[in-house]
Design goal:
The complex is a heterodimer of chains A (about 110) and B (about 110).
Chain A: E1 4-7, E2 10-14, E3 19-25, E4 32-37, E5 43-49, E6 55-58, E7 61-66, E8 71-76, E9 85-91, E10 102-103, E11 107-112
Parallel strand pairs in A: 2-11
Antiparallel strand pairs in A: 1-3, 3-8, 4-5, 4-9, 6-7, 7-8, 9-10, 9-11
Chain B: E1 5-7, E2 10-13, E3 19-24, E4 31-37, E5 44-50, E6 53-57, E7 64-68, E8 74-78, E9 87-94, E10 104-105, E11 109-113
Parallel strand pairs in B: 2-11
Antiparallel strand pairs in B: 1-3, 3-8, 4-5, 4-9, 5-6, 7-8, 9-10, 9-11
Classes of the chains: A mainly beta (about 110), B mainly beta (about 110).
Chain lengths: ~110, ~110
């Protein structure tokens, strides 16, 4: 089974609408990372969250970490076509100073102008 | 700002051939991670190096080997290539410290095995 579950798998929104992507871990999180990927291209680092209750924002993107629920959410306000892409959450869940990231399957976001 | 550099960006090989992928980390980053992303799949961790020593090993096939050199660049060597090795190979670099482990990814090398 997938250790990091992302939902939804895909999302189509009208430009200007808000949206939320969720990432839930089946194991203890030692750090949660959000990346954006254009098809077939590299991963662009968005944000890293480490502490429970932590919330970070960059431009119109906000990410929160609920450590107790082992869950993170990524919220985009007033979406734009430039937000389209695949959003991947990655987490260090192996512990013991491993640092390797395990990724979710990704959420494909399409923004309709 | 300098980013992670990977070369080549695209590579086409025949089955049973060998391939070498290179990764140049962000300056002053001492740790390199390799990931493999198959078509429509999430990235899978292969192997990592810290200060030129292998620090962690994931789902890397025995046909693959990697190393980190004195200048911190890393190379992933792949032998006896199979069709299933066709994927995007990402390198990431970072400076893990305690629980802090920000990884910055390169643009990837797209390997196609025919």
């Amino acid at each position: 089974s997938q250790e990091l579950e992302q939902s939804p798998q895909s999302l189509i929104v009208q430009e200007g609408k808000n949206l939320t992507i969720n990432c839930t871990s089946s194991k203890t999180l030692y750090g949660l990372y959000w990346y954006k990927q254009k098809y077939g291209e590299g991963l662009i680092f968005l944000m890293m969250l480490q502490k429970g209750g932590e919330e970070k924002s960059h431009e119109k993107i906000t990410a929160k970490l609920d450590e107790k629920k082992q869950q993170s959410s990524l919220h985009i306000t007033a979406s734009q076509p430039s937000h389209a892409g695949i959003y991947l959450c990655g987490a260090d869940i192996s512990g013991a100073g491993s640092y390797q990231l395990t990724f979710g399957k990704g959420t494909k976001l399409s923004v309709i102008p | 700002a300098a980013g992670v550099i990977q070369s080549p960006r695209h590579l086409i090989k025949e089955k049973r051939e060998t391939a070498t992928l290179k990764c140049y980390p962000i300056p002053r980053h001492d740790t390199v991670y390799w990931y493999q992303q198959g078509p429509g799949q999430d990235p899978q961790f292969l192997i990592s190096f810290y200060e030129k020593m292998q620090s962690d090993k994931g789902s890397i096939p025995d046909r693959f080997s990697a190393q980190q050199f004195s200048d911190y660049h890393s190379e992933l060597n792949m032998s006896s290539l199979e069709l299933g090795d066709s994927a995007l190979y990402f390198c990431a670099s970072g400076i893990p410290a305690g629980s802090y482990n920000e990884q910055f990814f390169g643009p990837g090398t797209r390997l196609t095995v025919l």
